[in-house]
Design brief:
By secondary structure, the protein is an alpha+beta fold. The chain is 34% helix and 20% strand. The structure holds flavin-adenine dinucleotide. Flavin-adenine dinucleotide (FAD) is lined by residues 29, 64-72, 75-76, 87, 107, 129-131, 135-136, 138-140, 142-143, 145-147, 196-197, 201-202, 339, 424-425, 428, 461, 464.
Length: 467
């Protein structure tokens, strides 16, 4: 195996893993795809990534980049005869510059590690989701990950100023800009963000930081319907000046699934409500953070004011506000179990969709009708980043043979309402059929042209994203 020997010479024998040494990378997080690469490569720096990719390029060997391996779409699946290139040793935070509100990191920095490091300086990298203990910056950029705080801070793309990429021929493209404005030609950075490793390997990034809120108001609220939920969101945005960080939908079916899978989880309300919202407001302004003469935090008082008014009008049914950090963490734990709860049953049709906020209600009503006609015994489970219109909509058909038909009707409904069949998890392998059926054909043609121009040998994560 001359290639393996050359790779060993480039990055050291012990960082070219084969056979049982690859066990950690053998499966994706869901356990759906088995990886059978020639080797897992663990380069220590950008020069070593470049050396590995050059060797792969010269021999025409496919390369599959992997970071935290928590992706939910099979994007890091490494088939036979490919090389899996892991960023896990490239885990240095190169610099944190509080005055410029930025952090410069290697691609393999784990999200939670970055949270802790910038938190120590009173700053936040405000992207968070259930896999924060494993997902890495390069993987998040490659999937343009979303999460719970998109409502306030945007997707990973919005939090990135610059990146460094190793191109499919091994050349290093340095786009480590620290600038908020730079109109000097095509936006190449954004081409690699969300490309799922099909155009190059992200090795470094310049990330935006924000001040850490000095106080949070976190609550679980039950409302009669989704329209009242949106009204609550908009009132809170108005009274807090847009400080709502998260607005998460956990309907009765989700709560039931949660309690089934984790029976020790404490119930939020005495009664079971149909529409439950986990919301969080983060305040940074000193006037909202300082405890007043009445002993109350202003940010919590704003929330109480809105909730009190809506309770009186019966547009809020019940509410619990976290009184301390333990209660806040308990509220978030219920939400962060979503991937486990929704993926714990089969057969399942897993939809990660985006809709305009005022069409979500219509979507659910239409889906109930359509599903009733297609498979009256099908069950559903939703959990959503409601504040940004991203719904994880699971359908469990009565027969696995119905999965494709269910997927098609979901997509049809989503597109008819101006939505997208892929919100935050990406395309990978699992959404390729949807991409083929539903993506604008001209957009697909342009994507193919870009891929062919940048990776003429087709070695960079082939078979993903582009059908
Ligand atoms: C419990 C749980 C909760 C989750 N919640 C959310 C959520 O709320 N929001 C959300 O958006 N996602 C969520 N995800 C999905 C997942 O965490 C994200 O997609 C994350 O961005 C993947 O990061 P990763 O480092 O694990 O990437 P990986 O899984 O390793 O890779 C993902 C994709 O990026 C490519 N890639 C990896 N590294 C590189 C690189 N260096 N250069 C180029 N391409 C690369 C891979 O080839 C693959 O296509 C969740 C996953 C789990 C398990």
């Amino acid at each position: 195996m001359p290639l393996i020997n050359e790779l060993r010479a480039a990055i050291g024998t012990k960082h070219v893993l084969q056979d049982d040494d690859m066990a950690r990378w053998r499966h994706d997080w869901i356990g759906k795809y088995e990886n059978t690469p020639l080797a897992v490569l663990r380069p220590a720096n950008t020069a070593e990534v470049s050396a590995c990719v050059k060797l792969a390029h010269d021999s025409g060997t496919p390369v599959v980049p992997v970071s935290g391996n928590t992706g939910l779409a099979g994007g890091a699946h490494a088939p036979k005869d490919s090389l899996m290139l892991s960023l896990d040793r490239m885990n240095k935070i190169r610099d944190i510059r509080p005055d410029a509100r930025l952090a410069i990191v290697e691609g393999g920095v784990v999200l939670e590690t970055l949270h802790d490091a910038v938190g120590a300086q009173g700053l936040s990298f405000p992207m968070t989701f259930g896999a924060k203990g494993s997902a890495m910056i390069a993987g998040m950029l490659s999937t343009n990950a979303g999460g719970s705080n998109v409502l306030r801070y945007g997707n990973t793309r919005d939090l990135c100023l610059g990146i460094e990429v190793v191109l499919p021929d091994g050349e290093v493209l340095d786009l480590m800009s620290e600038l908020h404005k730079d109109n000097s030609g095509y936006d190449l950075r954004d081409l690699f963000v969300g490309a799922e490793g099909t155009l190059g390997i992200i090795t470094g990034a310049v990330l935006k930081l924000v001040p850490t809120p000095g106080a949070f108001a976190t609550a679980m609220v039950a409302v009669p319907n989704l329209s009242d939920a949106l009204s609550l969101l908009n009132k809170l945005q108005k009274i807090t000046g847009g400080a709502v960080e998260a607005f998460e939908y956990m309907p009765a079916e989700y709560m039931a699934g949660l309690h089934r899978l984790f029976p020790d989880t404490r119930r939020v309300f005495d009664e079971d409500y149909g529409v439950n919202i986990l919301l969080e407001i983060g305040a940074t302004a000193p006037r909202d953070v300082a405890v007043g003469e009445d002993g109350a935090l202003p940010i919590v008082s704003y929330l109480e004011e809105v909730l009190g008014d809506m309770l009186e009008r019966e547009t809020v049914l019940d509410a619990v506000i976290a009184q301390n950090e333990t209660q806040r963490a308990e509220m978030w734990a219920r939400r962060e179990a979503a991937a486990e709860v929704s993926l714990s049953r089969t057969p399942a049709v897993n939809n990660d969709i985006a809709l305009p906020l005022d069409k979500i209600d219509v979507f659910f009503t239409q889906m109930a009708d359509v599903l009733n006609g297609l498979d009256a015994k099908a069950e559903t489970l939703s959990v959503a980043h409601l504040g940004d219109g991203n719904i994880h909509y699971m359908v469990y058909p009565s027969d696995a043979a119905l999965c494709d038909a269910v997927m098609e009707v979901v997509e049809e409904n989503v597109l008819s309402l101006g939505g997208s069949f892929s919100a935050e998890h990406g395309i990978g392998l699992s959404k390729l059929p949807s991409m083929k059926r539903r993506k604008n054909p001209v957009a697909l043609r342009v994507m193919r042209q870009l891929k062919a121009a940048m990776d003429p040998k087709g070695i960079m994560n082939p078979g993903k994203l582009i059908p």
